[in-house]
Fold this protein.
Amino acid sequence: MIRLKQEPVKIAGVPVRNHLILAAGVLGTCASSLSRMLRQGAGAVVTKSIGPEPRYGHAGPCVVVLEDGVLNAMGLPNPSKEFEQELSLLEGEPVIVSIFGGNPDEFHEVAGWFAKKAQAFELNVSCPHASGFGAQIGTNPDVVKACTEAVKEWKKPVWVKLTPNVTDITAIGKAAEEGGADAIVAINTVRAMRISTGLKRPVLGNVYGGLSGKAIFPIAIRSVYELYEACTIPIVGCGGVSSAEDVIEMMMAGAQGVEIGSAIVNDPDIFRHISEKLYASDGVSPKEIVGCAHV
């Protein structure tokens, strides 16, 4: 397997310790869990998505672990503005704050709460199971552009996390780029469901949810590949990454870094384990790998 040279990394204006980033929604609600991921080898961490008002989320069951992934319908639970207290404990660390809102004004407001402490913002316009938020606005290029412009007013790097649940993901990626995004994150979860044959009911309390994990890795690769051809800003790959080989494949498709989430369920030390296999003193420069699969 190709191994990478360990060298200083900056992705879309954000200095990170390596190419591996904790994805939003996983161990991201408090400073202690985010710090733990950094200590265990994450190059940077993305917080749980924070919105304009506190939310308790959907009734359970909210998470179901499947044989090839994770199905969840959390409903964007978050402490809203009170998250400032947690972020204050992470000052100086590579922390990207994930935010959501129902319109550009709400995105602008939420970003303003954290503008002094966040290294960057990740715009959640892609959650598939929260009414009025996420993918319900992230499928409209004009709205994505407007939300990106609103957050860019705070003069911080802005990453926009896209939904795969669209006909043409490149149209949304271009809209984010036109709005001033510094990077695109691809992808969020795939809209899905399962039914318990014993109970004769959907397994999730919300009926529908988002599928993550190994099952969606090919979809994520395809999305990154298409976006690399259509856009000029950096891409961060996300979706089903669970090995060093997956990281290299994502980078060959066009990603400058990757986010890891569901793989933590089976391996809490996933960042350290991947780093041990991914990097070598005599490795190749990442610049030689990113996008090399395009011909």
